[in-house]
Amino acid sequence: MRRAIVFKSPWGWMGIVESLKGIQAIVLPKQSKQAVESSISAQFSEPVQRGESPSLETARRQLLDYLTGRRTSFDLPLDLTEGTTFQRQVWRTLQRVPYSKLRSYRWIAARVGGPQYARAVGNAVGANPLPIVIPCHRIVAHDASLGGFSCGLSMKRKLLSLEGTLTQLQRG
Questions:
Q1: Residues annotated as part of the active site
Q2: Is the pTM of this model over 0.85?
Q3: Contact in structure between 118 and 105 (CB atoms under 8 Å)
């Protein structure tokens, strides 16, 4: 069973999905509640129940605190069982990237098996179901250019700006 909440943040509408094991997905800010609900429905094959829970409320509070600059880390139970073994390894490595620090895809690849895994790392980073909590936005290209972001480059710029690292990137 999965449960989800959709809520308004200072940046737009967001969503959080939990399983019995922990937080399973985060939908980054979108312009409408319906867009978040559609995104949640598209992520899961079976229906997701709407409703509150203590862990969803904790996750919402921590995300809102992050977006307003009052939180730099997260303390939430996570459910990463939907990922492959390699994806989970990449996601755990992403969690070691501290607030206001940038790392490259090459840096991640070196920690999960070597530079030959750079493309696979990029795919795993792009498949991250828990953006912000697992900070994939802190991963940039080796040449200090922005790189990609599954939630759009404008959102990546906004997150990096919040953390004070946007100015460290190459101007492209």
A1: 136
A2: yes
A3: yes
> What H or E segment, with its residue span, contains residue 3?
strand 3-9
Structure-block tokens of residue 7: 């809520």
**The amino acid at 5:** I
- Six-digit token string for 152: 């759009």
**Quick one: which H or E segment has residue 64?**
helix 54-67
Q: Give Cβ neighbours of residue 5 (< 8 Å, ≥ 6 apart).
A: 15, 16, 50, 51, 52, 56, 57, 60
- What's the sign of the alpha-carbon dihedral 85, 87, 88, 94? positive
Alpha-carbon 93 to chain mean position: 13
- Per the CB < 8 A criterion, the answer to whether 17 and 48 are in contact is yes
CA pair distance 136, 99, nearest whole angstrom: 11
For residue 139, list its beta bridge partners.
103
Which amino acid does the sequence have at 97?
V
pLDDT tens-digit readout, 40-85: 999 998 999 999 999 999 999 999 999 999 999 999 999 999 999 9
